């Protein structure tokens, strides 16, 4: 089932265990073909523990496919979304809660901005022959919808500042302009004092509106609206019946006295005129 509307023949849907090989197809010819969306998720030590470290085909490659398939089977959220042109896989966007990506969480280039439990998009890839058609932006928007349905308060990314073309091995961050088109705004600029040679990146965020409270079940009693808290010093502040009655009586007496004084003043003024 598509997580976003079909745009012509373009369909974007969550990655499933049965389609993990489509990720490999999308990333063919790039560094990502050996990554399988796993390197941002696990530290080097964890990769060795899982048996997914090292490069090239072989046992590690089969193990990576197995690990990604396991991530895709999770009930709460998949590992990302795939874009299809008809039946052909043409794009992939990695997505998940920040704590899903150990490298992102611990990197000096991507520290948290605040305490918002934002989901992150660590990488996005579109096959070379399908670029320049707005597919990446469509996938980013679909990722926001997908995350929002699963309770994410916001989605963040750390794209390159420059929009210049770079080698595919460094293009997976996406660009600032790309995320701006998808409705993201910059919440942090390029961090200072990063190691020489690191890509200049900014932090972009798309805040997701809080969903309305679910409707009451048919036949269920209507919930009472919570009582409004009285303002400090307001005459409507709740008091004990005795005190309220006493204060009310004093207030009435004060009004009567004020009325008498006004009438007396008016009489004196009238007498002077005469």
Describe the structure.
The protein is of the alpha+beta class and 274 residues long. It folds into two domains: 10-207, Gcn5-related N-acetyltransferase (GNAT) (Aminopeptidase, 3-Layer(aba) Sandwich); 238-274. It has eight helices and nine strands. It has a five-stranded mixed beta sheet with strand order 4-5-7-9-8. A four-stranded antiparallel beta sheet has the order 1-2-3-6. The longest helix is centred in the last third of the chain and has 33 residues, at 241-273. It starts with 9 loop residues before the first strand and ends with a helix. Residues 1-7, 212-216, 225-248 and 264-274 have low confidence and may be disordered.
Name the helicity range. 25-40%
The domain count comes to 2
Structural class: alpha+beta
> What amount of the residues lies in strands?
5-15%
CATH level-two architecture of the largest domain: 3-Layer(aba) Sandwich
CATH superfamily of the largest domain, by name, is: Gcn5-related N-acetyltransferase (GNAT)
What's the CATH class label of the largest domain? Alpha Beta
Number of strands: 9
CATH fold type of the largest domain: Aminopeptidase
What would you report as the Rg, rounded to the nearest angstrom?
31 Å
Low-confidence stretches: 1-7, 212-216, 225-248, 264-274
Distance separating the two termini: 94 Å
- Overall pLDDT metric: 79
Count helical runs: 8
Any idea what the shape is? globular
Q: What kind of sheet is the major sheet?
A: 5 strands, mixed
């Amino acid at each position: 089932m598509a997580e976003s509307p079909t745009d012509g023949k373009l369909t974007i849907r969550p990655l499933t265990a049965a389609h993990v090989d489509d990720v490999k197809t999308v990333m063919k010819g790039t560094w990502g073909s050996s990554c399988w969306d796993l390197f941002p998720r696990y530290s080097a030590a964890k990769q060795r523990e899982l048996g997914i470290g090292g490069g090239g085909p072989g046992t590690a490659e089969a193990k990576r496919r197995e690990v990604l398939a396991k991530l895709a089977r999770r009930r709460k959220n998949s590992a990302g979304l795939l874009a299809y042109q008809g039946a052909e896989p043409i794009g992939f966007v990695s997505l998940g809660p920040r704590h899903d990506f150990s490298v992102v969480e611990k990197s000096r280039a991507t520290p948290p901005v605040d305490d918002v439990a934002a989901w992150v998009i660590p990488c996005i890839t579109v096959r070379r022959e399908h670029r320049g058609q707005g597919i990446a932006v469509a996938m980013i928007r679909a990722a926001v919808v997908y995350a929002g349905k699963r309770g994410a308060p916001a989605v963040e990314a750390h794209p390159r500042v420059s929009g210049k073309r770079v080698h595919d091995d460094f293009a997976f961050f996406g660009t600032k302009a790309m995320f701006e088109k998808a409705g993201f705004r910059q919440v942090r600029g390029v961090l200072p004092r990063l190691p020489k040679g690191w890509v200049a990146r900014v932090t972009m965020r798309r805040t997701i509106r809080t969903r309305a409270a679910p409707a009451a079940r048919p036949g269920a009693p209507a919930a009472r609206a919570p009582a409004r808290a009285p303002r400090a010093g307001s005459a409507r502040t709740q008091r004990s019946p005795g005190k309220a009655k006493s204060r009310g009586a004093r207030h009435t007496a004060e009004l009567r006295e004020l009325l008498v004084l006004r009438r007396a003043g008016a009489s004196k003024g009238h007498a002077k005129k005469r």
